[in-house]
Structure formats: structure tokens, C-alpha cells
Target: 7-cyano-7-deazaguanine synthase
Amino acid sequence: MKAVCLISGGMDSSTLAYVAKDMGYDILALHTVYGQRTEEKELMCAKKIAKSLDALEFMEISLSHLTQFGGSSLTDYSMNVLDHTDEKGDEKRKNSQEKTQTGAGNEESFGSHTISGTISTTIPNTYVPFRNSNLLSIATSYAETRGAEAIFIGVQASDYAGYPDCRPEFVEAFQKVISLGTSDETNIRLMTPFVNLNKTEILKKGLKLGVPYEDTWSCYKSNHPACGRCDSCYYRLKAFEEIGVKDPIDYA
Amino acid sequence: MKAVCLISGGMDSSTLAYVAKDMGYDILALHTVYGQRTEEKELMCAKKIAKSLDALEFMEISLSHLTQFGGSSLTDYSMNVLDHTDEKGDEKRKNSQEKTQTGAGNEESFGSHTISGTISTTIPNTYVPFRNSNLLSIATSYAETRGAEAIFIGVQASDYAGYPDCRPEFVEAFQKVISLGTSDETNIRLMTPFVNLNKTEILKKGLKLGVPYEDTWSCYKSNHPACGRCDSCYYRLKAFEEIGVKDPIDYA
Model:
């Protein structure tokens, strides 16, 4: 029984892979790089987690086209990753819009056209447009070629508010796409055991399963030490604090 | 009014882009390379078509991860692309299975595990697993960052039999994924005007719109001249023959 596990190297996806293993699956680790600032560190962590789970394979995939399109501060280095406490909502929105209008500049110049974008002004500028659908499509291609029966993805409750492609309805709709878009002999189930858990509940589960959190990385901004201030650091630290355990990684 | 058009450089997608332009859309051309044998030729054709339509942008995207997974004769050069008339069904099936079991070998060696695959034994070995979902995910990311209102993809009737991700139900399910997975202000429609047409009907439409078919490429096997024998050449030639027009490209 094989499962493709999307392992970013963060605490959620690492815990998720431990849950999959605990359920009896052999792990096919799928790690994607897409030009994010902390790419190198995340890759290292994902590999350590996969090794610790005796994964069947470690597949590293580049989604650099998401960088080509631009529009997210995670991949567009001319945009700022804002601190969690940053209240300059207007600047956040302005950032999103401005960069969308120009793109990230990797595309070939084609005539003298000016292109204006209309991406949302309310979702966080760390949103990589339609990322989860890209991830799940790749995971499904991988699962189909390897005869895996499940795909584990760590979407979870606290992301709903900001990222449209983390909603449970999105996951359900994608399950239908998988069922219809793969060969009829294939039966791949999309597994999202964390969809209704918050980060603290996930961490509690992970500590019970012995996840080596020293080998996970969450910071959006820096490879070492973690900034401690971006959204991702904020929620990670909050979860450790709520459980009363010290986060084993270094913070600035 | 902008539309992302997936332009492979083949006759269907080129005709489709002309249809989109005819409907009043400005074209954002999206061309993907994924290690297929005729990559270079298709890129050249797609660029010519985009130029002839005064496209706003030409975006070339690599989906090389589909090559990493293996499992299709279009990207795995150790497998044969069979001639249309080839009746060795058993060999076709054997080809599919064997290569799936080993993968394409790009992945990092990870332990000493042996992985066996169970991909379909009845769909053609030119099938790239779940390719259309990967294409549509990318197209949607692109559309969202550019504020496009539509995505045109050339799925069509005669492909249903073989490729599961060309079915109309698949397209409908993906439309739902788009609606749920993009920001609420975004409204992107998936357009498949060819879904119920056959190749001859598409060609008739294209000739009326003045599509320069000398700048399109269909052959699965060769960059020049076209082999005239693979499935793709066979159906193209049949369409031209049925209309009684000479195909302007060279055949072996």
C-alpha cells in the first residue's frame, strides 16, 4: 500500500507523512521547489523526514513556472514578506496589485503590449496562485505512474481564511477531477487528515508520533535562523507555546 | 477581454487560438514543453501561431517533471511510439507496463526499494499521466495572475476513447476546481469549443478562419519531415483528405 506524500519540509507536511506511515502506507515523498526564498533549507528538511520514514523514493520537482508568472511575495523577491504583526493592510494590498500588473519578467517579450492583472486584493501576498491544484496534479501524475492508492496533502483549517485552494470544497472537487481524469483501473484517494485540525492539534499528534521537528522548517523569509516574525513562524511558535514544548529550531 | 490559450503547435490548439481571437479575446499564449520528442518543432510552430494572432504574451513553460515520472512513450525515449496501423496490442501493453515499473530514472536513488506500478494496460502508451490537469492548473495560475477571463483548451471528441483526461466530465469537474480554488473576485471560464467536434470539423473551421497550417506540427515522432504513420499524423492526414485539401507540411 503506497501513498504519495507532499512533503514541503514544514511542520504540517512532515507530521502528515508520519501519520501516513502510521496508517500503514509506504511513502513516496514528493517535494516541490518553486523558487521560494527558503527553498534550500526546505529541501534539506524534506529529505531528512523522508529518510527517517524509510521512504520508497524521494522525488524533487521544480514548479519554477509559478515563479515565471509572478504575483506572490514567496517567489517574487521584489515584494516583501510582511511580518505577522504588520498592520499596513493598504501596503500589503498595493504590493499584491503592483507586482501582478508587471509579472515577474521571465517571459519572452512579445510585441509591445501592456498587461494589467486583477488578482485579489484581499488574500495575503504570500498566496501562490492556484498552487495546490498544481501540486495535486503533479502528485496525481506521480501516484498514477507508481500505482499509489493515496495522496496526502497537509491543507488545514487555519489556512481557509486566506488561501482559496485550501478549502474542503476545493479538495472534494479535486478528488472528482482525479477520479475522472485518471485511467479507470486507477483508484487514488486524496487524504487530508488535517483539514479540520489547527496547528496546535497537529503538533500534539506529531509529538506523539515522534516527528523530529528539529528537521522541519516553516519560516517564509530566512534559511537560518528562522525570522520568528512572518505568519508562518508566528503560528508555529504559537502552537509550541500552547502545548508548552520548546521549538527545537533556532530563531533570530 | 483576455484569454489564456494553450497552444501546443498542433492543428487543434492552433485552430482553437484562432477561434478565441475570432470571439474577441486577446490571446495570452501558453506553450508547454515536457521533454516530448518533437519539442523544438512544436515550440517554433506555437510561436508563429501566437505571432500571427498578435498575442499579448508568449509564455513557455517546462513540465519536465512529467518526464521525471516516466510512463509515456512521448517522453520516455526507450519506449516506442507505435504506428497507427500497428496491431501488436500485446507489445503495446507490455511496453506500458514495463516502463512504468522502472520509472524514467531521473529521481534520486533512495534506499534499495523496488517500486512496481499498476498503470492502465488499455490506454495508449502515448498517454502522459494526468497531463491535462497539469496543463489546466498552470493555465489557471497564469490566468489568475493576468486577470484573464477564459482558458481555451483543445480537448476533443476523438480523444475520449483513449485519454481519460479528455472527457467532458473531466472538463466540468475541473471548472469546479477553478471556481473554488481561485480567489472569489476571479471568474475564469474553461472553454472547450472543440469538445464535440471531430478533427475534420475542426479543420473545416480553421480553414475558414485562415489558420496557417504550414506553421503547425502534429507528428509524435519526428521534427521533420512528419512520419505520416503515428496516430497523430494518421488522423491529421485523414482530416485533410476528407476535406479534399492538401496538407501543406512535408511527410516522409
